[in-house]
Amino acid sequence: MNLHEYQGKSILESYGVGVQKGIIADNSNDAIKAAEKLSELTGTEWYIVKAQIHAGGRGKGGGVKLAKSFEEVKEISESIIGMQLITPQTPPKGKKVNKVLIAEDVYYPGNSEPKEFYVSILLNRSNGKNMIMYSTEGGMDIEKVAKKTPQLIFNEEIDSALGLLPFQARKVAFNLGLEGDAFKSMSKFISNLYKAYVGADASLFEINPVLKTSDDKIIAVDAKVSIDDNSLFRHPDFITLRDLDEENPIEVEASKAGLNYVDLYGNVGCMVNGAGLAMATMDLIKQSGGSPANFLDVGGTADAERVEIAFRLILKDPKVKAILVNIFGGIVRCDRVAQGIIDAYKNMGDAIRVPIIVRLQGTNAEQAKVLIQNSKLDVIAAVAFEEAAIKVQEVLA
Ligand code: GDP
Ligand code: MN
């Protein structure tokens, strides 16, 4: 489960991690009130208006702006709330902004220059250890830093039995080139950040930038936080943090029906039983010149009811120009699946607006093919993998 910046920051704060303070607003009047309150709370005179969407690169897309008065807070909030924000990390059509975080300006002048760092915590899946990844090159695209100057990215691996040891937190602060108060603040920041990561059962923390302010405080200016879905039963209070507006509506519906559906960019809808076969099917579609519109695993029971739910989900996607059903009949017999498809098809009538290619393999595959051919429905039956590929190619041509 991905969180918004403001939600991630509030988890960090609850573990004593310093953050750029902010107040959430969903209209420009509340934005002004938020700014007034922030000014009382922190003494700030300038404000940062930050679009809350589940994607980074908001600054580049015009979703993070500096306001130097309440009037500007109002104007900027009005222009950002409701906008379709396009960043390098959003889908091409962007994401609609429903809320803005009004944050204190933390880049104020002082004894030293503010300095931006990069810090993330994630699981290194190759050895099962949590890892702190950090760099002096904060505030920019970490992918670019990794490509051009990989020597400026450091890793610190954490033994899960021992946890983060104090010397490791100090090492991070040292490698970031800090001294004096900033060094101490960074060590504390890192150790509390790690406590938050473990305590919240997170699967990713990405704080870019972590800022050393001109008066040597260390704070999180941004927060990308993902929580491990499998741990949510331990965090009933996190349930309200889920923002269904950020999730694909077809995916939300599919998960309610117990189907594994992932939206993709192509034109061929896929209905498959088993994740491995679904992956192979997507490759097959690519080879045949098409491109998959979705990943859909209908699971073990491909009966008429489930097949119909799956067809309806796939057809909600306007990109879909053909549907490839690829079922392996092992425990479930192919002729039963074929009957399920026929029943679902008859039930749906005109709702089926694209050609359907069905490939059934396994127990009673030949009978299944005959059943489909005899049904006189507009369904193209295939038994072999390549046969199905060629038929997909033909209907797309
Ligand atoms: P992202 O673009 O989605 O990663 O959003 P960030 O929260 O990282 O903000 C983008 C950029 O806005 C940061 O890298 C900063 O340069 C700038 N920014 C954020 N907070 C402040 C602030 O308090 N004052 C000023 N002047 N700039 C800020
Ligand atoms: Mn950022």
Describe this structure in words.
With 397 residues, the protein is of the alpha+beta class. The protein folds into three domains: 1-20 and 108-246, D-amino Acid Aminotransferase, Chain A, domain 1, CATH 3.30.470; 21-105, Dna Ligase, domain 1 (2-Layer Sandwich); 248-396, Rossmann fold (3-Layer(aba) Sandwich). Helix content is 36%, strand content 24%. The protein has twelve helices and 18 strands. It has helices spanning 5-14, 28-42, 70-80, 142-148, 166-175, 180-199, 249-256, 275-287, 304-315, 334-348, 365-374, 385-396; strands spanning 22-25, 47-51, 64-67, 84-85, 95-96, 100-104, 115-124, 129-135, 153-158, 202-212, 218-220, 224-227, 260-263, 268-272, 294-297, 322-329, 356-362, 379-382. Strands 7, 8, 9, 10, 11 and 12 form a six-stranded antiparallel beta sheet that branches. The chain has a four-stranded antiparallel beta sheet with strand order 1-6-2-3, with helices on one face. Helix 5 (166-175) crosses helix 6 (180-199). The protein starts with a helix and ends with a helix. Residues 56, 208, 222 line the site of manganese (II) ion.
> What ligands are attached or bound here?
guanosine-5'-diphosphate, manganese (II) ion
Please indicate the percent range of residues in DSSP E strands (runs of 2 or more): 15-25%
The main β sheet shows up as:
6 strands, antiparallel
Number of helices: 12
Distance between the termini: 39 Å
CATH architecture of the largest domain: 2-Layer Sandwich
Strand tally, please?
18
